[in-house]
Specification:
Length: about 575
């Protein structure tokens, strides 16, 4: 056999040629792939822009009125206004119960007509593949709840799509904890917390004004901790001290979430390592999130360590979460339980507190309403007075039965109408969908503007006035065609409501019974013992109006200072 040998210099030349061709093949492959991806991206962007443009033409062709969008980057752009809820209300008064506007190329339809809102909610209920909560780009509104409720981020009840089977499972699993009967059984604990708050306010005295919104947040925080998870945070015991720190932490955490929701670029910027910490507020955000999630993590661990208890004996939200199964015998993973537990504080604390705050504020501004509330409480034997320094205790029937304290309950409803604390929610049309006489094109954001529905002339006579007696009519929640308005062409359909502070359907507020029992108990306890006077530094009603902000909830900016004047011999 002859051996074939290759000279070393030939070998080296061959290897070099081979190497070079490999490099150039790889380079070509990279260039081709990158070009294909870039072309695909450009095609997707164009397709998306084209579909938005088509949708805009479709809406215009159907005669849906259009609100001026203006330049979204201008300093005075409407959507940058702090009282954003009032922008939708003004536009609704001018353009009617349905109109659309564009942010850049993106189309948003605002709906406040009760009949159309009813249809949207009905479709979303039955067909989540047609209308659902928006997630991700370009509407990452609900995504911030995932980041704010556990680490690493996990979805939770409010942020999951209805089409996600997990949503149904969790909602069904915890619903018994929120049933009106179950919540009624918590009355004694709620009353105890409301009385604790009243005792602290009395100690505070009336000379010094107190931020009543902050005090009520402590109260709601304690109620959710106690009723939901058998844990007493005791924030009401020490309103200004360490007891209330947990409550303030939740508020700070919510503020980060809301800022991210209003400007979705912020969370992205925070992840960029080369941007200065101070500019992205990274350190501050990390510090608040660590405090917030640490506190809620400890609570979730505490609930977990108690194990699964008999639901007859412990009907708290926490125990219901412990009984939840992913599959047969496969319990809810801890991380998911943590995020679900957290969302009840995020969704329930500020909302309930602001609802009571606005009611107390409105009563303080309407002496004739305050007189009537006091008279009703007096006749029920609940008012503190010179003759009755120690009245009877508020009972479960007082708080729960519509026959008891009807005027006070009407006052609370009217306050929720005028200050609908959750003023708007967002949904997305995932397919073209017929709503009334309109076809809403796929990809359009739908803003269900409950605040505008509650506060425009098309739906309420004398809508700008605080008139609690309108709720003494048992049918008052139903939508009715008002003569001379755009609602006049609708029929009086008994299912359609013009009052939806908690929304309706499968994504309505699961905490409604708890919120209602809490704000009735707290308002009755406080108004039977005190009269509330707006502090001078608030600048009167005009000052309060100027500091009213939309921060996912309608709330007083920073604080609402009031003097809490004890009733009794001095009055
Ligand atoms: C006055 C007080 C309250 C008001 C006005 C209110 C209002 C609302 C509204 C309008 C929604 C729908 C949000 C959306 O779809 O984007 C909602 C959802 C929710 N609320 Fe409330 N809420 C209140 C109190 C509470 C309380 C006390 C809790 C629990 C402790 C709670 C827990 C929730 C949860 C978990 C959801 C999400 C439900 C789901 O998507 O299935 N809320 N609330």
């Amino acid at each position: 056999m002859t051996e074939v040998s290759i000279a070393p210099e030939v070998w080296a030349r061959l290897a070099h040629a081979w190497d070079g061709s490999l490099t150039s093949t790889a380079t070509i492959l990279v260039i081709v792939t990158a070009s294909l991806l870039a072309a695909k991206l450009v095609a997707v962007i164009f397709q998306q822009l084209w579909s938005y443009e088509k949708a805009h033409k479709q809406l215009a062709a159907q005669g849906v009125p259009r609100a001026p969008s203006g330049n979204p980057f201008a300093p005075d752009a409407p959507w940058k206004r702090e009282d954003l809820h009032r922008v939708g209300q003004d536009d609704c008064e001018k353009l009617g119960g349905i109109f659309y506007f564009r942010i850049l190329w993106f189309n948003c339809v605002q709906i406040s007509d009760p009949w159309l809102m009813h249809e949207v909610l009905a479709v979303a209920n039955k067909h989540p593949e047609v209308i659902d909560k928006p997630r991700g780009f370009p509407l990452p509104i609900y995504d911030c709840f995932d980041r704010g409720t556990s680490n690493p981020p996990q979805p939770c009840l409010i942020s999951t799509k209805s089409a996600d089977p997990w949503h149904k499972a969790v909602r069904r699993g915890v619903a018994p904890a929120f049933s009106p009967d179950n919540i009624r059984n918590s009355f004694d604990a709620i009353l105890e917390i409301a009385e604790r708050l009243a005792a602290r306010l009395r100690e505070q005295g009336s000379d010094q004004a107190i931020d009543i919104d902050g005090a009520l947040q402590c109260e709601s925080f304690d109620v959710i901790g106690r009723i939901g998870f058998n844990h007493d945070f005791n924030a009401t015991e020490n309103l200004l001290g360490p007891g209330a720190e947990g409550c303030r932490t939740i508020k700070e955490g919510c503020a980060i979430g809301v800022n991210d929701m209003r400007n979705p670029v912020r969370p992205v910027l925070r992840t960029l390592p080369f941007l200065p910490e101070a500019w992205t507020h990274r350190r501050k955000v990390r510090e608040v999130q660590a405090r917030l999630l640490g506190m809620l993590h400890s609570l979730a661990k505490e609930v977990q360590s108690r194990g699964r208890r008999d639901l007859e004996k412990d009907a708290s939200i926490g125990n219901h979460l412990m009984h939840l199964h992913r599959r047969e015998r496969d319990p809810l993973p801890f991380a998911r339980m943590w995020s679900e537990l957290s969302i009840f504080f995020m969704a329930g604390m500020e909302t309930t507190a602001h609802a009571i705050t606005w009611a107390l504020y409105l009563v303080s501004q309407h002496p004739e309403v305050e007189r009537r509330v006091a008279q009703e409480l007096d006749e029920a034997g609940l008012l503190v007075s010179a003759q009755r320094p120690n009245p009877r205790k508020l009972s479960r029937e007082d708080a729960c039965s519509p026959q008891h304290l009807p005027y006070l309950k009407a006052v609370l409803k009217e306050a929720q109408r005028m200050y609908s604390v959750a003023p708007l929610v967002v949904r997305k049309a995932l397919q073209d969908v017929r709503i009334g006489q309109y076809t809403i094109p796929a990809g359009t954001a739908m803003i269900l503007h409950v605040f505008a529905m509650h506060n425009t002339s098309a739906n309420y006579e004398r809508h700008a006035e605080f008139l609690p007696e309108r709720w003494l009519d048992a049918e008052a929640e139903k939508a009715r065609p008002l003569p001379g308005t755009s609602s006049a062409h609708h029929t009086a359909d008994s299912k359609v409501k013009r009052f939806l502070p908690f929304l309706s359907g499968n994504r309505s507020c699961i905490g409604m019974s708890l919120a209602q029992l809490n704000y009735t108990t707290a308002a009755a306890t406080l108004l039977s013992r005190f009269s509330f006077r707006l502090a001078d530094d608030m600048g009167g009603p005009a000052g309060v109006r100027a500091k009213e902000v939309y921060f996912v909830t309608i709330q007083p900016k920073e604080r609402l200072n009031m003097h809490v004047v004890p009733r009794g011999p001095a009055l």
